[in-house]
Structure formats: C-alpha cells, structure tokens
Design goal:
The complex is a heterodimer of chains A (106) and B (404). Chain A is of the alpha+beta class and 106 residues long. Chain A is 14% helix and 21% strand. In chain A, strands 2-1-5-3-4 form a five-stranded mixed β-sheet. In chain A, a hairpin with a 5-residue loop joins strand 1 and strand 2. The mean pLDDT of chain A is 94. Chain B is an alpha/beta fold and 404 residues long. A five-stranded parallel β-sheet of chain B has the order 3-2-1-7-19. A five-stranded parallel β-sheet of chain B has the order 9-16-10-11-12. Chain B is globular and about 60 Å long. The chains are: A alpha+beta (106), B alpha/beta (404). The complex binds flavin-adenine dinucleotide and FE2/S2 (inorganic) cluster. The site of flavin-adenine dinucleotide has 35 residues of chain B, from helix 1, strand 2, helix 8 and strand 22.
Amino acid sequence: MALVFYVAFDGSQHEADVPVGSSVMDGAVNNGIDGILAECGGAMSCATCHVYIDDAWVSKVSAPTEMEQEMLEVVSNPKENSRLSCQVTITTEMEGLKVHLPESQF
Amino acid sequence: MKSVVIIGASHAAVDAISTLRKKGWSGKVVLVGDEVPLPYHRPPLSKAYLQDQISEEKLLIRNEQFYQDSDVTLMLGRRAESINRETHSITLDGGETLAYDKLILATGTRTRYFPIKGGDLPSVHYLRTKADADRIKTQLVSGKKILLIGAGYIGLEIAASAVKSGCEVVVVELADRVLARVTSPEVSSFYQRFHAEQGVDIRLNTGVQSMEVAGAAYRATLNTGGTVDFDAVVIGIGVVPNVELAEDAGLSCDNGILVNEFGATDDEDIYAVGDCSRYHSLIYDRKIRLESIPNASGQARTAAAAICADEIAYNEVPWFWSDQYDIKLQTAGLFEGYDEVVVRGNPSENKFSVFYLKAGRVLAVDAINSPMEFMIAKKLILAKAVLEAYVIRDMSIKPKDFLG
Ligand SMILES: Cc1cc2nc3c(=O)[nH]c(=O)nc-3n(C[C@H](O)[C@H](O)[C@H](O)COP(=O)(O)OP(=O)(O)OC[C@H]3O[C@@H](n4cnc5c(N)ncnc54)[C@H](O)[C@@H]3O)c2cc1C
Ligand code: FES
C-alpha cells in the first residue's frame, strides 16, 4: 500500500491507500474520488483519467510512452506534468505521491 | 426506505451505483446479477487476461470495499426471472420477490449460439464471461491449433492473443473481409495484412459445416470442401440483447429495450441501460443499440442521475476500441451511411486514420495507432463538423486544427 493524495481542482484534498501494482486511476475509482472518469478502465484508450503529477514527484514517476504522449497532447489543458493516471503504477517508492486533478476530463 | 434495484452486475451497473450515491440517493441499492464474481472488466477477457498479463484482482471494475462504501446489497449468483409492474417487484430464481421503487435493467447481451453439427463437443467455446475466458485460457498453449469462427473484434483479438501464446491460428469468416460489420474495406484489408504477417491463416468467404472428433483432436469441414484440424475452437458470431425480462413485462423492445434520452422505458419507474437498450441518438437521428463500455457507463450515469431528479439528456458520441498485438484501434462515431472515405497517413506504417464523411460531415473515424485523430474526431462528430478531404489528408495540419 502507498498513501496517495488527490487534489481536486477546487483545492480540496482526498487521500487513498492504493495497493502497490495498481494504478493511480484504480486508487481514485475504488475510493469514489471524483474527477477521474476512466471510461476505458485503464486500457489507455479514453484519456478521461488525466492528472497532473505534483512537481515534487515528477522525477519519481516513469516517463509516458509515445502513445500516451500523443493522447496527452489533446486532453483539455495539457501541461508538462500531465499523465494518464491509469498508466502510473504505484510502487513502494511512491508513499505520499500527490496528484492534481484537472478542471475537466473533456 | 425507497429502493433502487439493478438487474445485471457488470459495467453499466457499476456506474449506476456510483452515480446514485454521488447524486445523493439515500435509499437502498440492490444489485442482482447471475454471474458469481464481483463485476469485472470484459474487454481484457480477449486481450490481457487471456494472455495471463493481468490478475483476477485487476480485472475487477471496483474492489469489494467500493460496494461496502456505497452501501449496496449484493445478490450475486442470482437470476431475476420476472418483473411484476403492478406490485413494483421482481421475482428471483427460487421464487423470492424483491420490491423496487425504481428498477434499472442492465442485462447486457449473451453470445449468439451457432447451431452446427459437433457444436456440443467439449472443445467448442464462446467468449462472454470470465468463466469462458478461464476455460479458453487453458487451451492457449504453445503449439496448439486454435480455430476461430467469425472475424469480428473479439475473434481477431483472440487470434492475436493465441498467436502471442505460440498457438497456430486459423480464422474462418463467411464475409469477404474481416470486421465487415464494423468497419470499411480499407481498415479490413489493413487487419488482414497485419494478422497474416503474424502468421494467422485467415480464410474469407468460408464457413464451417460440421465438426467432429479426429484422433486426439478435432476436425472442421468447411463449405469450400476443405477441412481444418484443431485442438480448440472459439465461436464469435455476435451477441443477442437480453430483452426477455422487459418484453415479458410488456415493455417495448425492438433489437433492444427501447428507452428515451434519460434511459427510461415506457414505464417511468423502469430504466434500461447499456448493451441491452436502444435509444434515439440525437447525433445520428435514429435509434441505435451499442455494444460498448463507454456507452454502458454513460447511459447508466444518465439514468441514475434522472432517478435522482437530475435530468440531462444522453448525447455522447459512440466510441469503441480494440487492441490486437501492439495495434490500437479507436473508433469514434458510427460509419453507416458514409459517401466518402478519406485516409490520413499511411497504412503500411501501421499508423493511419480513416475518416467517413457524408456530404462532407464527419460521421465516424477509425484511428489506428493515432490517438490524436481519435480524440479530435469525437469533438468533430458531436459538432456535426464538415471537413474537406484535402485538409484531412494533409499531415502538416495537426488534428487539433481541424476544429477551426
Ligand atoms: C471478450 C470481450 C471483449 C470486449 N472488448 C471491448 C472493448 O475493447 N471495448 C468496449 O467498449 N467494449 C468491449 N466489449 C463489450 C463490452 O464488454 C460491453 O459493451 C459491456 O460489457 C456492456 O455492459 P453492460 O453492463 O451493458 O452488460 P453486460 O456486460 O453484458 O452485463 C450484463 C450482465 O447481466 C447479467 N444478466 C442478464 N440477465 C440477467 C437476469 N435476468 N438476472 C440476473 N442477471 C442477468 C449477465 O449475466 C451479465 O452479467 C467486449 C466484450 C467482450 C465479451
Ligand atoms: S482509463 Fe482510459 S486512458 Fe486511462
């Protein structure tokens, strides 16, 4: 388990214990955290699981694949630290990971 | 206390539950489903799960805690036998009745059976449920011969999974091309080439007439006169919507349970969502029944919101995906009725997209390893945008700039 912090667009913060090996997206949907739709259930097909990785954590998270990068280019309001949360797998080094949710997934 | 009863425990049901609670439904929520496991993702059954790349736990749409947190009464492994509209109740297998204030039918589809001589041999499979996938998985062993009847998405995805497991794969298809029901000849020929390169033997214009035991394995006799020997066969010739509960209760059905833009049937206390339902699409101005997760989820969210007195008409662009080998197909929209096909990019590079236009209006787009085109296509279709073919073909124009 790793404790993950999800910061909503309005600044409110939710936390969830997410099992190692599952994704940041899994952690959100299993804990009823709003703002991540995950329409494709993690198949990297929908881009409705967009999050921003907190600056302090960017270096500890693996880099996106080319396909993910392309999808991220066309999400609403993409930034340098944008990721599809279904592609970010929790490892033991991620205790305390913080991600920020976008205003909208569309 | 008021009660929402949901029949069918799968993709649509999960989104209905989460929306009901998010929108403040404080009454009971009861989930009745005839499959035993907690609701699980179906798409991986022909893909990652069949290739043993994901665990049973990862297959769950939500973990057990979610149902506890959502205060859902789970009645799994139970079948609903009938709906009694006068008494606002349903009857379960075993005769027990369950009262509802609002009922959501999320009964989905079942596999279409192929009546064929030898169709009851032990090595004949269909793929709809996790239990089906678990049985098929044991057959995908290196060196085994796998026969697939039907070259739709599921047949081709199983072909790709079987090849990855080291099997010898033959696909027979009655039509003159693969994926004939869901895409254009341009995309079909791409998949035919790609599968052939991976070693799949695709036989078009070919049907199976009978199957029989042949030594330690089996033999299929084809309508072309030849035979194919195999260790296991998976039949994928489509699905049938589960409408009988609704039909027997007198609700209007026509290739799906008919619903309005909020998911309600003729009975205002009964909703139908997901693969089992058919609704009037505002985008295409006709009735459509979709077999897709995003639609099941979207319709479920709409119906659950309506139950919570938050009525927002359902108006989402249909979309689909299929993963075969490392090729990702994402389809936005429905292509029926197109009068012009425009290919963007080069199919030989395994990265291209196909735009289907009608009088210039973008009806649908198939995007192969082209997620940007797919994402923009959804927006173009919703806006009923008109695009010129030369603009679509011009790779120096970014998909983003199609939006104008
Ligand atoms: C192998 C496979 C791969 C797929 N891949 C994709 C993909 O890549 N992308 C995509 O978008 N879609 C895919 N699909 C389609 C997708 O799974 C369906 O669109 C989706 O499951 C529909 O969800 P649903 O909740 O409407 O119905 P279903 O998932 O069909 O669930 C209905 C449930 O209701 C139960 N039920 C029916 N009648 C009763 C009753 N009387 N009492 C109790 N329970 C009942 C059924 O047993 C079933 O469990 C795939 C499907 C399969 C089988
Ligand atoms: S859940 Fe669909 S892309 Fe992440």
